[in-house]
Write a structure and sequence with these properties.
There is one protein chain. This protein is α/β, with parallel strands linked by helices. The chain has a single domain, classed as TIM Barrel (Alpha-Beta Barrel). The protein is built from nine helices and nine strands. Strands 1, 2, 3, 4, 5, 6, 7, 8 and 9 form a nine-stranded parallel sheet that branches. Strand 5, helix 5 and strand 6 form a beta-alpha-beta unit. Bound molecules: iron/sulfur cluster. The site of iron/sulfur cluster has 11 residues, from loops. It comes from Geitlerinema calcuttense NRMC-F 0142. Catalyzes the radical-mediated synthesis of 7,8-didemethyl-8-hydroxy-5-deazariboflavin (FO) from 5-amino-5-(4-hydroxybenzyl)-6-(D-ribitylimino)-5,6-dihydrouracil. Keywords: 4Fe-4S, Iron, Iron-sulfur, Lyase, Metal-binding, S-adenosyl-L-methionine. The FO synthase complex consists of two subunits, CofG and CofH.
Length: 326
């Protein structure tokens, strides 16, 4: 008897790597004004090359321009333009660009089938350590985003980052906060359980989260969160087959967007889909593609997005699971 685990065939566009925060574990950012932004022409060339390959999700992932910066409007406009371009070329955008103002979120809702923001951890103590130079990591700001996403009926992905100095109690508080907000609005489709993983360009000199503890962290999350929230783990950070299967047994059911490059953890390439399926199928799991919006939320999208999603849903229903290289 096979059980299903899902993933989203995805590609990431990065409008800019510049970020005004300096999280100590970051392997993504460059200093403000030190990066040429991705132009719409460059993005179009990349997206055109992806057409017909079964990739449905375009993840728009960006470093953050300060909320009071004069360049903030241009930054948001570029993000919106990339989403519109992705839709015009037949893809489904999912944007994750840090905390947004309410009006910014409303604007991006019109051009996204879902959006995301990691809560990471709600413990304020981290603002004195790994987040001492990262004002947008204030827990209340991130929880406010989850509330607004619910109010605006935006299907949403959030998650925990494990191993950045939090306690077990902090993790419980974070799960509880997410559960409470979801109970109010019913909009959180996935929670990512992400182990902090040491990279080559970060400031923080600390070992990664002990991966052997991941299955128990997932089991705790599964008990703490409502059943209609799917738990997601990134397979490139859970690199050992036995561990990956143990995480599924503990309650994870999704492997997230599998892209050519994990921009947040560039030192950890994603596994090949067929190799991944080979590992999974020997243990009774089948890997299926999914869309970046779950079916129960499609009615929240505007008619243009709904019709694009329907086209993809029809195409996906014809697909069988990923075939292993046997
Ligand atoms: S982790 Fe995100 S918010 Fe923090 S510095 Fe890196 S890009 Fe910026």
């Amino acid at each position: 008897m096979y059980r299903n685990v899902k993933y989203s065939p995805a590609y990431t566009l990065v409008p800019t790597y510049e970020c005004f925060n300096r999280c100590e574990y970051c392997n993504f950012r460059v200093d403000p004004s030190q990066d040429a932004w991705l132009t719409l022409e460059q993005a179009e060339a990349r997206l055109q090359a992806l057409r017909g390959q079964g990739i449905c999700e375009i993840l728009i992932l960006s470093g953050e321009v300060h909320p009071e910066s004069k360049r903030r409007d241009a930054w948001l406009e570029r993000i919106e333009g990339l989403c519109e371009l992705a839709i015009a070329l037949g893809f489904l955008p999912h944007t994750n660009v840090g905390p947004l103002k309410y009006e910014e979120m409303l604007r991006l809702k019109a051009v996204n089938v879902s959006m995301g923001l990691m809560v990471e951890q709600v413990s304020p103590e981290l603002m004195q350590t790994v987040h001492r130079h990262a004002p947008s990591k204030r827990p209340e700001l991130r929880l406010q985003q989850l509330e607004w996403a619910g109010e605006l009926q935006i299907p949403f992905t959030t998650g925990l980052l494990l191993g950045i100095g939090e306690t077990e109690g902090d993790r419980r508080d974070t799960l509880e906060a997410i559960a409470q907000i979801h109970q109010r609005w019913g909009h959180i489709q996935e929670v990512i359980i992400q182990p902090y993983s040491l990279g080559n360009s970060q400031i923080l000199n600390a070992p990664g989260f002990p991966l052997e503890q991941l299955p128990s962290a997932i089991a705790i999350a599964r008990r703490a969160l409502p059943d209609d929230i799917t738990l997601q783990i990134p397979p490139n950070l859970v690199r050992y087959p036995d561990l990956l299967v143990a995480c599924l047994e503990a309650g994870a059911r999704d492997l997230g967007g599998i892209c050519p490059r994990d921009e947040v953890n560039p030192d950890y390439p994603h596994p090949h889909l067929q190799a991944l399926q080979e590992v999974l199928s020997t243990c009774g799991w089948y890997l299926y593609p999914r869309l970046p919006v779950y079916p129960q939320y499609e009615g929240w999208l505007n008619p243009a997005l709904q019709s694009r999603v329907q086209q993809w849903r029809n195409a996906l229903s014809l697909l069988s699971p990923v075939q292993p290289n046997l």
